[in-house]
Amino acid sequence: MSQHIAQNTKFSVLDLVPVTQGSSPLQAMQNSLDLARRTEELGYYRFWVSEHHNMESLVSSATVVLLGYLAQGTSKMRIGSGGVMLPNHAPLIVAEQFGTLATLYPNRIDLGLGRAPGTDQLTAQALRRGKQESVQDFPNDIEELQSYFSSENEDSKVRAIPGEGLDIPIYLLGSSTFSADLAAKKGLPYAFASHFAPAQLFNALDIYKNEFKPSEKLKDPYAMACVNIIAADTDEEAHRLATSLYQFAMGIITNTRRPLPPPIDTMDEVWTPDQEAMIKNMMYFTFIGSKETIEKELSKFIKATEVKEIIAVSHIYDHGARLKSYEILSGIFAQPLKVTAK
Q: Rounded to the nearest 10 degrees, what angle do helices 319-333 and 25-42 cross at?
């Protein structure tokens, strides 16, 4: 017995705007725009950029500036943050910035919010100017942000202009159960970062679905999951391309974050058994292979999680190969995705 679920599952893109070895930040941003244009043509629903700081391997620090660049270079795809790290910014600034984007590009802008710093602790201190975050700061900042977007704020002494009265959808992002619980209580859509933090995925989704309270913006839970996807013509080629992702992950665990390196034939001489186990655990929800392989494994994931949307991130060194990976994936969701029941 099988059923089709792809028509009910949206597919989207997360881009960290990676700098590849031997390339430049400018080329990384130009590649991001090229990817956005191509995935828009392929039918992807949205294109998100994540905020990171103090990393020469990623140039998404000025996230809002990049979103304007991408929105101007595309025409219909939703463009947004996946996410803006709210504790790094005053809610009023975020409301004004996204209000400006939504005014320039109406009905196309998403505001995804996270509470991690998106960087190391020293840089976080520089961003937050020594502010110590309490457990209640993130929920309070979201409420403040929502108030700036509301029409009811027009009589306030502090207003977000532009931004006030605009319908800018807010998404909560997380890699633990904290934001899942908060998104459920506030009736907001929720995206889980399973591409690098898989451990709490199912717990977080259960909490979100079971505790969800309908809101004016959202009547039913809307869960999304970000996963790594590396597709190629053959499984062998895809696994070779994936060595760039593994080397990138090595930089994370050893704190030596350098531009994304080219693929290599084998990782055997690069990582120790312990490092291999750590990285493969961290990258547990990584789908590597041909169209047939990825379709089979991804369909199991969608069935198990019941997420409404897959957000695909692809750390692939060669820009042409990255484009092709998203093209192969689009061939899966462009037709009904089959899920076989056990």
A: 20
CA separation, residue 296 to residues 10, 83, 94 (Å): 17, 29, 40
In terms of DSSP bridges, do strands 190-192 and 170-174 run parallel, antiparallel, or are they unpaired?
parallel
Distance CA 251, CA 315 (A): 13
In the block, residue with structure tokens 């244009």:
37
- The structure tokens 């899920």 sit at 339
Dist CA 307 CA 294 (whole Å): 17
Query: What value does the mean pLDDT take over residues 307-321?
Result: 97
Three-state DSSP at 150 gives coil
Stretch among 89-103, 107-121, 241-255 having the lowest mean pLDDT: 107-121
- Give CA–CA dist 298/332, Å, rounded: 10
Please state the length of the chain.
Answer: 342
CA distances from 180 to 17, 196, 220 (A): 26, 17, 14
Residue 135 contacts by C-beta under 8 Å, 6 or more apart in sequence?
none
> What are the residues whose beta carbons fall under 8 Å from the beta carbon of 152, sequence distance 6 or more?
none
Reading phi first (left if > 0) and then psi (alpha if -120 to 50, else beta), residue 187 is in left
pLDDT at residue 124 tops 70: no
| In contact, 228 and 289? CB cutoff 8 Å | no
149-160 confidence digits (pLDDT tens) = 999 999 999 999
DSSP state of 155: G
